[in-house]
């Protein structure tokens, strides 16, 4: 286990370096500079470029960035003059993660119930209703739900604040809007997988042994059906918790998703790099966690085995 | 059994590591830090006793350091929390603010300001002449974005310092004593007073700035204010609170007690908040104009942002003046503004927009030259045929460099439709690229036609006129006319304001009518909704536009 962890850690590091390198050079190909003000004259642009070291060859800039990165320094934002990238990210990840986490928990729970009901009452009215809901949830973009929630719940009925970020009640609508996709995804996966597992021989065996239905479902069916769900939940969690542009924009949530798109638009190089790396790190780490979870869910998946893979 | 416990523990751990810390930061973000609790709760109180204005910005404040700020939100906040030597009144005219007295030498080159005795910082300490000298030189020491404003102001040595030939310390500004500031110019500048109200020229208290190190201006309590309001709260990317500054020299004339500013990036969200009573003023886009046209809260503001076509003056066919004029005339501007844009924009038949600048007698600049480049489609057709003949071609294909915004796309398609129909042999190829790239292409002059835009730096026609001098950084189309260059130079240093105005009228005529250097398209309109109880909200044509200074809440 120890050796495996170490090896995985090594891979993670290499992956991060590759991502940092690719992002850096791709980003340099973006048109424009962080100083896009059309008032700046040549001399001033030159002065600004010199101040930030952008007058040097890209290769040198890259080496400098990487050596700073190794020392844990993500640099300062170009747009938010004097503010560090770490500060920008840490200020904005909170709200994103909060609504993301809530949406994930709520979405998974509801999705689980819908999916399991669907599978157990296969081809019943209940099943069709839940499938229809799932398809709707998957195919209607979340901003439609967001706009509807904002208009009816927020404005017309005045039950919850329609936007802004001033207290806990302000997180509810964005959470609901965000959870729709999660509900739909989870429900669909669970249903399909459970239907698959229920027809397996070992389920029949378990039943034949006289195990009661509840135990069969929880211990044998659900547990095996969870593997693909876990695979999918990892990346989904990262996606949803690092912020979603549209939901954050609609509800005026001071989150990371909106910030990322903004920094690309204004060529805020250091923030683009910072957020990309942060996101990549979380993603890689989540994949790692999911791999470990596999082993616990299904002992046949062997973490120590490196030989089989070569 | 053991395994299952492990699984549970791990899931829990995973959930906690990924989210545990976020819960905390989420909470600290949504709850105001101790000193700002007042700011957060006042909105829930009945507002009858307190006059509160609720506004929004579409972005976070990047910085409050006047030496570095370079975009709208910072400018807006500084404009309402700071005061320069001059300030602009409701009509955009400069009046003495922090400086109580302004003496000018006979040659118009040395300006001596006396700081008001009651000019104070928000911490109660006096504003001194040293504060101005410090902040002005800081712009050059730290390569601030807006150092070019010193060039516009004509401060001595500004250009040389920018080029690295002189040191920031040699800038033509000097504190004679605590109360006396001396500014030396390169040449007499008729716009001097007007420009001095700009945020780049605000003072900074050296001791305070240095005590905050590189964190100056990054939090509400890491800045000092000497203007009508001061920030008492700033939650990043969420909003900030202004309260009346009791130490402001003109505090007696401030009616508002508090301003709540929020960050709202979406128009429809802002509208929802407006309807639910959390915002008092909202800027609309064209899709809402028809819906609210009849609403008593609806207003159209004519902004001085102009849109025009740049011609590449080195293009073999566009070199021909008749071709350019035909392209400028052969389409229906009214159709564009009324049907396609429908947001309060209006056709522009000149360089300087209307309601932007008036002469001493109150006559609008636009009235002097009237409609330039205006003619019928038939006239345009005749010019087109003649121009093509002169250029020796029968048809021409032109690329249009434009941003990839909805607005630019709509304009491009309209132009293509109109021009191709009216000018036989013309093919337009629309090249919509990201805004940054549009600017790069324009600067490199790698286009045939470019959909350009310009907003004024200061409230004087010169801000549009000096764009087109040979080699100017805003020219971006290789237009060059020595006569034009010379006249601009003359007008720039002419302190006889009436003559200068006439010179600028003449210059516009040369550029638009004689040379057809560009084809003006329209002047942007801004559609807004404003609660009827908000009085005297002043939106000035030049940045920073939003002025809360005179606002009163009459509920």
UniProtKB/TrEMBL annotation, chain A:
It comes from Brevibacillus invocatus. Keywords: Cell membrane, Membrane, Transmembrane, Transmembrane helix, Transport. Its main location: membrane. This is ABC transporter permease. One of its GO terms (biological process) is transmembrane transport. It comes from the Bacteria. Belongs to the binding-protein-dependent transport system permease family. The chain crosses the membrane at residues 9-27, 99-120, 132-152, 172-190, 225-251, 271-297. One of its GO terms (cellular component) is plasma membrane. It holds the Pfam family BPD_transp_1_N. Residues 93-294 form the ABC transmembrane type-1 domain. It is found in: Cell membrane. It is a multi-pass membrane protein.
Automatic annotation (TrEMBL), chain B:
Residues 27-49 are annotated as: Disordered. GO terms for biological process: peptide transport. Residues 27-45 have a biased composition (Polar residues). Residues 94-474 form the Solute-binding protein family domain. The keyword Signal applies. It is found in: Cell envelope. GO terms for cellular component: ATP-binding cassette (ABC) transporter complex; outer membrane-bounded periplasmic space. Belongs to the bacterial solute-binding protein 5 family. This is Peptide ABC transporter substrate-binding protein. It comes from Brevibacillus invocatus.
């Amino acid at each position: 286990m120890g050796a495996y962890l170490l090896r995985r850690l090594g891979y993670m590091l290499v992956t991060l370096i590759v991502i940092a390198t690719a992002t850096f050079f791709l980003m340099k190909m973006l048109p424009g500079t962080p100083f896009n003000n059309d008032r700046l004259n040549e001399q001033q642009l030159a002065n600004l470029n010199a101040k930030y070291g952008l007058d040097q060859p890209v290769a040198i800039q890259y080496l400098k960035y990487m050596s700073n990165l190794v020392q844990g320094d993500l640099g300062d934002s170009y747009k938010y003059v004097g503010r560090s990238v770490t500060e920008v990210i840490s200020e904005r990840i909170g709200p994103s993660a909060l609504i993301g986490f809530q949406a994930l928990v709520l979405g998974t729970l509801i999705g689980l119930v819908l999916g399991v009901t669907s599978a157990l009452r296969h081809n019943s009215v209940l099943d069709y209703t839940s499938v229809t809901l799932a398809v709707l949830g998957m195919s209607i973009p979340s901003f439609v739900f967001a706009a509807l929630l904002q208009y009816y719940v927020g404005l017309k009925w005045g039950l919850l604040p329609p936007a802004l970020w001033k207290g806990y009640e302000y997180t509810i609508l964005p959470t609901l809007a965000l959870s729709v996709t999660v509900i739909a995804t989870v429900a669909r996966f669970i249903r399909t997988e459970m239907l698959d597992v229920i027809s397996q021989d070992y389920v029949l065996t378990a039943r034949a042994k006289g195990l009661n239905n509840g135990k069969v479902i929880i211990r044998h069916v659900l547990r095996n059906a969870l593997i693909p769900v876990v695979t999918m939940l990892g990346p989904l969690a990262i996606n949803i918790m690092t912020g979603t542009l549209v939901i954050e924009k609609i509800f005026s949530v001071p989150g990371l998703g909106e910030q990322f798109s903004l920094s690309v638009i204004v060529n805020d190089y250091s923030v683009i790099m910072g957020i990309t790396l942060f996101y990549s790190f979380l993603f890689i780490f989540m994949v790692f966690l999911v791999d470990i979870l596999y082993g616990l869910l299904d002992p046949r998946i062997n973490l120590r085995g490196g030989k089989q893979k070569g | 059994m053991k395994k299952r416990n492990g699984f549970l523990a791990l899931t829990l751990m995973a959930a906690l590591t990924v989210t545990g810390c976020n819960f905390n930061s989420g909470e600290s973000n949504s709850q105001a830090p101790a000193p700002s609790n007042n700011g957060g709760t006042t909105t829930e109180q009945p507002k009858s006793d307190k006059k509160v204005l609720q506004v929004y910005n579409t972005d976070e404040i990047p910085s409050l350091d006047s030496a570095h700020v370079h975009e709208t939100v910072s400018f807006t906040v500084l404009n309402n929390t700071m005061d320069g030597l001059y300030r602009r009144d409701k009509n955009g005219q400069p009046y003495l603010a922090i400086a109580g007295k302004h003496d000018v030498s006979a040659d118009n080159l040395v300006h001596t300001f006396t700081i008001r005795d009651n000019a104070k910082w928000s911490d109660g300490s006096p504003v001194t002449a040293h504060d101005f000298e410090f902040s002005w030189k800081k712009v050059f020491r730290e390569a601030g974005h807006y150092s070019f404003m010193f060039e516009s102001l004509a401060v001595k040595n500004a250009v040389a310092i920018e080029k690295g030939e002189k040191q920031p310390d040699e800038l033509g500004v000097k504190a004679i004593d605590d109360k006396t500031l001396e500014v030396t110019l390169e040449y007499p500048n008729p716009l001097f007073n007007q420009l001095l109200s700009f945020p780049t020229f605000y003072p900074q208290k050296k001791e305070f700035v240095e005590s905050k190190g590189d964190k100056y201006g990054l939090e509400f309590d890491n800045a000092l204010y000497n203007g009508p309001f001061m920030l008492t709260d700033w939650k990043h990317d969420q909003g900030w609170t202004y309260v009346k500054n009791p130490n402001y020299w003109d505090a007696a004339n401030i009616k508002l007690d508090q301003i709540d500013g929020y960050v709202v990036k979406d128009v429809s969200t802002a509208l929802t908040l407006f309807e639910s009573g959390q915002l008092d003023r909202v800027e609309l886009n064209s899709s809402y104009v028809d819906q609210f046209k009849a609403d008593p809260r609806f207003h159209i503001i004519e902004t001085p942002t102009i849109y025009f076509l740049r011609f590449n003056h080195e293009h073999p066919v566009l070199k021909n003046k008749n071709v350019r004029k035909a392209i400028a005339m052969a389409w229906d501007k009214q159709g564009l503004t009324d049907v396609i844009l429908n947001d309060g924009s209006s056709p522009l038949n000149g360089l300087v927009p209307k309601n932007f600048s008036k002469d001493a007698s109150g006559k609008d600049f636009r009235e002097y030259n009237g409609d330039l480049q205006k003619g019928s489609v038939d006239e345009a057709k005749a010019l087109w045929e003649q121009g093509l003949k002169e250029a020796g071609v029968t048809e021409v294909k032109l690329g249009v460099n434009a941003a990839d915004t909805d607005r630019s796309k709509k304009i491009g398609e309209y132009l293509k439709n109109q021009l191709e129909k009216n000018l036989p042999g013309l093919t337009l190829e629309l090249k919509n690229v990201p805004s940054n790239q549009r600017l790069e292409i324009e600067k490199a002059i790698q286009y045939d036609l470019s959909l350009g835009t310009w907003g004024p730096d200061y409230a004087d026609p010169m801000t549009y006129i000096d764009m087109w001098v040979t080699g100017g950084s805003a020219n971006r189309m290789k237009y060059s006319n020595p006569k034009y260059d010379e006249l601009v130079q003359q007008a720039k240093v002419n302190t006889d304001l009436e003559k200068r105005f006439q010179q600028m009228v003449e210059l516009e005529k040369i550029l638009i009518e004689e040379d057809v250097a560009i084809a003006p398209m329209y002047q942007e309109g801004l559609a807004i909704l404003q609660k009827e109880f908000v009085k005297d909200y002043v939106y000035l044509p030049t940045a920073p536009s939003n002025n809360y200074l005179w606002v009163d809440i009459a509920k």
